[in-house]
Amino acid sequence: MAKCCGVSPCNCRVTAGPGVTVTGNGSAANPYTISADAAEPTALAVADSTTVDLGLTGTGAAGDPYTVTADVIVDPSPPAGGTNLLQSGPDGLFVECADVRGCLSAGDGIDYDPATGVIAADISGDAGNQTTIGSDGGIYTPAAAGTALEAADTTTLDVTVTGTGTAGDPYVVSGDVIVAPEQNGVEASPSGLLVAPSADAGNRLAFGADNRLYVPPDVIGCGLQGDGTAGDPLRAFPIAGSDAWADHWDCTDVDHSTLKCDPNTGALWTPPEHYTAADHIYQEHMNPVVSNIGPTGGWAFLQPGGVAAVVAFDVPANFLGNECRLWSYTSHVHASIDISASSTATFELGYVYQEDGGALQIRPLEGVLTAFGTARRERYAGSVSESGFDRAANSTLALHFFCAVRVIAGTITINSWTSDATIHTTTQA
């Protein structure tokens, strides 16, 4: 400081940092004094676990430092209800050998002495047992003497013995059943002896509930007659008797008869019956009359009294009594329309057709595309037809023919519009 401070006060700059205090101005009479406060002691806490109990003493100061101690926690009541063998002594944790012996027990083939803790092999004292303790302290069984073995056939079994009876070449005894060469029902199969009914056509021999052979009695079902004997064989039972195909049909029975047999069930069957149905609607739509219809900007539904004028064929599911076959329909709607038109009127008449809620389709009937120049009243007529094929069995159908007009210019009044409509439905081949 003396070198940089030749004047009073000193022109040297001293700045205090964190935790430091500077006083004085650096002169000889008032020198700089730098001091610092003691730092705050470090905070310390302990947290026990399930196996260690921690303790903390002291304040952390130089004269009273922290002291951390730990004691092992030994569970006095183990969860399984037994006795805890772990103990804590002056020199640490320990388990006494004598305490562990009580946890051991001897099973088959083991000899255990809980007083000494010795575990040994338990050799059976049954007569003929050759196993003992060898000179090296291990379990020992001396080699057995050779066993003589020979085969003896019977009238039904051919016995064979192979091998020498040693561990590496043990005896193997096998036998083959002897089946008499005369004709009989016994045969030797890969899985054993077998008595099987003949596979010849017409054989009715079977196995009963007691696994013995039996011939089942005849069961005559519906549509059959006879008892299955040579004198009264089983045969079909046509209620109207027998008749020749050729007496009624010019075509061949093989190609055109519909009676068939199901190979899975053995049942006779014919194709599902065909069904057809029809409906007719005659309807006057203009109640009340729809008057003074001006240009519509396109096709517009007629709505006398605020309700759309429509011919509706709503065919419910299974309307034909058909649950098997595809089906088709044809529909025809004839219109007779009484029109009053102004002298400048040009217009078209028709139906807007919709099937099953699908797209709307225009079906024009009549049209006046050049004005007549005078007011007039005339009747127009026309028809539309629609058809559909390959509809799913048991499906529904909704056919709607909406009465519609397209007024291009002038005005018209619909005095009367009658629809005469029919629908025919039928199953397909």
In short:
The chain has 2 helices and 30 strands.
CATH topology group of the domain at 276-427: Jelly Rolls
Helix content: under 10%
- Strands, total number: 30
CATH architecture of the domain at 276-427: Sandwich
Shape: flat
Which CATH C-level class of the domain at 276-427 is it?
Mainly Beta
Radius of gyration: 57 Å
Strand content: 35-45%
**Mean pLDDT level:** 86
Query: How many separate helices?
Result: 2
First CA to last CA: what distance? 124 Å
Low-pLDDT segments: none
Major sheet details: 5 strands, antiparallel
Structural class: mainly beta
Short key terms for the protein model shown above:
mainly beta, flat, Jelly Rolls, 30 strands, 429 residues, five-stranded antiparallel beta sheet, 2 helices, 2% helix
How does this structure look, described?
By secondary structure, the chain is mainly β. Among the domains are: 194-239 and 257-270, no CATH class; 276-427, Jelly Rolls, CATH 2.60.120. The chain contains two helices and 30 strands. It has helices at residues 97-101, 253-256, and strands spanning 20-23, 33-36, 52-57, 67-72, 87-89, 92-94, 110-113, 118-121, 132-133, 139-140, 157-162, 172-177, 187-189, 192-194, 206-207, 213-214, 224-225, 235-236, 260-261, 268-269, 276-284, 290-293, 300-301, 310-315, 327-341, 346-355, 361-368, 376-391, 397-409, 412-427. The strands form twelve sheets. Strands 21, 22, 25, 28 and 30 form a five-stranded antiparallel sheet that branches. A hairpin with a 6-residue loop joins strand 19 and strand 20. The N and C termini lie far apart (124 Å). The mean pLDDT is 86.
